[in-house]
Amino acid sequence: RTARLNTTLPNVPLSEIRVGSTNTSADIQTYLQKVDGARPRDLGDTTSVTQGLTSAFDGKPAGLQSLRARISAYEEALRGISTPPSAVELQRTFIAMIRFTNDRLGAIQQYAATDPVRAYLAAREMQVALPQHLARLQELRGSLEALSTGSTTTTVP
To answer: Which tens digits make up the pLDDT trace of 1-45?
Structure first.
């Protein structure tokens, strides 16, 4: 019997997004700058993630716990950013990816020392899911960046 990987991102209700009332190119630029500024530098560094995972499998979950706390704080910061209407899909997808990653890291933290197969499956779910969802995120970001260079107010379908 083979295990089925769950690579579906969680739903992020619209009620969790601070949707702004205006949607100008300046609003979009400000939004993108705030999103970029909210990201902790070490989350882009695979070394801290790798070290946290390796330590967890060695029975020392503190590094992964610390990483997960920073990811949770990052999500909280993102949820506080006013989001122009045209950026809502990007914001929801981004937060969903962060939650998905944090959830899988939590499973790894929980099972690494006691059930390495379950921990491996959680890691594999991240490995399979994140590239496809990241591609969608980049596509949404590209569309927003194009809107942010416009000089007129954009309309939301």
So the answer is: 666 899 999 999 999 999 999 999 999 999 999 999 998 877 767
pTM over 0.90: no
DSSP secondary structure letters along 24-55: -HHHHHHHHHHHHHHS-GGGG-HHHHHHHHHH
Q: Where are the beta strands (DSSP E) in the chain?
A: none
pLDDT of residue 152: 46
CA dihedral over 74, 86, 140, 88, signed as positive or negative: positive
Q: Which two tokens stand for residue 6?
A: 């769950």
Please state the separation of Cα 75 from the chain's center in Å: 7
* Residue located via tokens 């992964």: 64
Backbone angles phi, psi at 127, to 5 degrees: -60, -40
Output DSSP code: residue 5: P
pLDDT at 153 over 90: no
Contact 133, 95 (CB under 8 A): no
Nearest to 90 by CA among 41, 45, 35: 35
